[in-house]
Amino acid sequence: MLWTMNTFDHSKNKKQESHDTVPPPNLISFMLKRWKPKPVKRMAPLKNADYFHARRRALSAKFPGEWLIIPTGHLKVRSNDQHYKFRANSDFFYLTGNLEPDCVLILAPESKSHKDILFVEPNPGKTDATFFTDRVKGELWEGARLGVLESRELYKISDCRSLNELESFILATVKSTGKPIRTLRQISEKLEKWLPLEASEQTEKDKFLAATLAEMRLIKDKAELKELSVVIDATQRGFEDVIARLKTAKTERELEGVFFTRARIEGNDVGYASIVASGAHACTLHWNKNTGKIQKGDLLLLDAGIEGNSLYTADVTRTLPISGKFTKEQLEIYELVLSAQKAGLKEVKPGNDFMAPNQAAMEVLAEGLEALGILPCSAKEALKDENQFYKRYSLHNVSHMLGIDVHDCAQARAENYKYGKLLRGMVLTVEPGLYFQTDDLTVPAKYRGIGIRIEDDIVVTERSYKNLSGKIPSEAKEIEKWMKSIWDSSKKRK
After folding, report:
1. Residues forming beta bridges with residue 392, ordered by sequence position
2. CATH 3.40.350.10 fits domain 25-216
3. Which of 108, 68, 123 is closest to 92 using CA atoms?
4. What class, spelled out in words, does domain 222-493 have in CATH?
5. Beta-strand (E) ranges in 344-439?
6. Tens digit of pLDDT for each residue in 222-243?
């Protein structure tokens, strides 16, 4: 069996594979000799370290006298001994800025607050055989980890410890105090085995911790808004890359790859599976197979966002005429969706219900569907709770929170999210859409197969809102001009 690091990462496949070789003692001895000593290098603190510290203090104030345990999670197996690229747990990152797997943040109760303790992977360098025997974490396989001292300086958390100390700390220190313990569940299986069992009372305690963190994240601070602006600007460039390629593209998958390239150049990844839906594929709300062909005369619904290296993600949708010009029928439906979005945006203001933008947008859509002769009754009747006939053509609501996750703050309680009030600093999407299925006999034939969504990322301001993605054209004429200018620029470069 290959030697592996002694940490609590349960996700590794530790058995010897058929293609492995066991290093003989002489090789191990040789490999551990004559390496240049690792220089002592001071780490500059993380750019937003003070914001992360402030968030930990805010969380601390909500749970006096209790242990709070926040793991980031582990690598997940994709197939056999291959892992998915690691992505830190959002709450852990929100509190630390740390992107490494296997780490754990513990807030230890003190008389008036909490002491922050961060457990991280040690970095023994080339003094331990695991640097070449551990193919999952070894330095020669995956690159060096930060280590304890470096983490202390980078994250400005004075008490950083090796993960090798975690089990004994929890069993001998945390549990022995008899004080309440809360943790985020279903992130680290092995960690949970050391903690109180999920009895009903403990389950409610842990759920409340998750809800509290989600509700803290509902309000974005200045650092978060800056990160969102960065990824939204990058997303605009990704959209422009797609438009430039649209002139010659043959398939949706090709365009997906173009956007992904921008995501990897300017960020960490895409924030979610990109929806690149041409023609009738746009009528499938989450079409991300992206296997269709690009054909002149169709529309392209592009719903995509770049996730930055800070993990914050954009979420923008534009519906583009592949030929560069909307047809008469496409334009009629597009203008209706755009009018619905404008109505929704007017309702984004502090003190309004979170659902107010949705209600306003749906009223416009229903009235438009009535004018087109599509609804089986009046818009007023269709909008009644017992009917909701408009949803046949617009199934989804128009808003969700946005931030570190594309559907941010998902653990927040309904009374503080869906049924709550809009507050300054919240970031949400406004994204109405209409989708006319190809086999829907209630829709005139000339509109069937048209799917349109327009989505922007909005921050609630002191009195109204700011459209963070507003620089990306959404008026039909502006979209046509935008596409033409990109294509003209591409010609000049050639």
Report:
1. none
2. yes
3. 68
4. alpha beta
5. 427-430, 433-435
6. 999 999 999 999 999 999 999 9
